Recover the amino acids of this structure.
């Protein structure tokens, strides 16, 4: 394969996707895939091709650049932080943009963002998307849910978070609905933050959702990770270190959980060891594989009842292709899976100098299209050139990054 020649987007879906109501159509309804084909040229059609940065030609380099490149000074977002109390005495930091003081609550369409493992609203993959969607001409609102202990937030009860326990997200969604009860909501989940939707079925308050780099099958993914040298000796230890750093910051409170031994957890050399000693025990699972199976979201794909777009790279070293739920996606007419041959884990960098993330184009197009279908007055019409211009102008941003 020659990635520099371009990586066409491949679409997997049910032959008969659901019909959605579209207010500006004469028939008032259209099949989801047909609508996406009209509104999202970066997903379907001759322009649906990802051209990777020539010096980042594979998933390992894309992933490394995403993890270690300096994104300071670009994609700057001004947040206003609020805290949501949980039933067990904990708290969750949520970051609103634009700040509530600048844009009081109203019925503006809203993006609810969920970050990846030990991440937060400061992550560049979040900021580059919000820079497009919350600024003119789209002017949507966004709120980033920072899971417990993440993004410089303190925990107030002896519990961090896990991929399989979604009650914190429900608590935050209830809070968001109280703040903006008439606002359409679309969730965008990155990596480990992309779990939840299938559990709710038709009860979800979301009108649609986007899953980016979702691991889907944690048992299979963990086994695949340790089959490779980089997976065993680079990626897994790196993820374990991130989790250990998070645990260390909150050691005083986490010591109250007598089910775990923090000293043993801090000796973990892999993410599986950390989840064995800390995560699985903290959340009451019998074994680490019990936790991984419970937290694997592919079980719930068939139960999704609103439009769901999943975007994954086939060379993602964290999420191998064998773990993608092709059959479940094709079974469920609400779901669409888009893959590219390359892109790495939350990478998809394009351009030679100061690479930008290609993925913000299809993600933005999908969100805008769904908001338009929900309300023809919400946002602006999808325009590939507009989104491209927004993405390429990020280096000139003057907003303030406030956590």
């Amino acid at each position: 394969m020659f990635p520099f020649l371009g990586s066409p987007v491949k679409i997997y879906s049910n032959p008969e996707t659901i019909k959605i109501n579209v207010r500006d159509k004469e028939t008032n309804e259209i099949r989801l895939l047909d609508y996406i084909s009209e509104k999202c040229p970066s997903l379907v059609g001759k322009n649906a091709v990802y051209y990777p940065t020539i010096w980042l030609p594979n998933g390992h380099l894309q992933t490394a650049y995403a993890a270690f490149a300096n994104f300071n000074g670009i994609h700057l977002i001004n947040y206003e932080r609020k805290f949501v109390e949980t039933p067990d005495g904990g708290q969750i930091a949520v970051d609103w943009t634009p700040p509530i003081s600048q844009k009081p609550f109203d019925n503006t369409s809203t993006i609810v963002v969920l970050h990846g493992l030990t991440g937060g609203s400061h992550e560049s993959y979040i900021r580059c998307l919000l820079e497009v969607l919350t600024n003119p001409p789209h002017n949507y609102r966004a709120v980033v849910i920072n899971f417990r202990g993440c993004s410089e937030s303190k925990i107030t009860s002896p519990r961090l978070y896990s991929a399989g326990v979604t009650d914190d997200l429900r608590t935050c969604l209830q809070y968001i609905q109280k703040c903006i009860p008439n606002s359409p909501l679309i969730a965008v989940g990155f990596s480990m933050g992309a779990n939840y939707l299938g559990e709710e079925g038709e009860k979800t308050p979301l009108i649609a959702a986007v899953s980016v780099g979702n691991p889907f099958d944690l048992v299979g993914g963990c086994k695949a990770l340790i089959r490779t040298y980089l997976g065993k000796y680079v990626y897994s230890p790196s993820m374990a270190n991130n989790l250990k750093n998070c645990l260390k910051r909150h050691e005083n409170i986490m010591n109250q959980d007598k089910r775990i031994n923090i000293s043993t957890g801090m000796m973990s050399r892999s993410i599986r060891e950390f989840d064995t000693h800390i995560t699985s025990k903290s959340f009451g699972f019998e074994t680490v594989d019990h936790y991984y199976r419970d937290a694997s979201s592919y079980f719930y794909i068939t139960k999704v009842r609103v439009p769901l777009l999943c975007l994954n790279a086939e060379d993602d070293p964290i999420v191998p292709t064998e773990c993608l739920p092709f059959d479940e996606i094709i079974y469920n007419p609400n779901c669409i899976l888009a893959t590219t041959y390359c892109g790495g884990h939350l990478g998809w960098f394009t351009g030679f100098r100061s690479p930008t993330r290609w993925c913000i184009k299809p993600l933005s197009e999908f969100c805008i299209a769904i908001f338009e279908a929900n309300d023809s007055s919400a946002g602006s019409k999808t325009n590939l050139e507009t989104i491209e211009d927004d993405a390429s102008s990020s280096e000139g941003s003057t907003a303030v990054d406030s956590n």
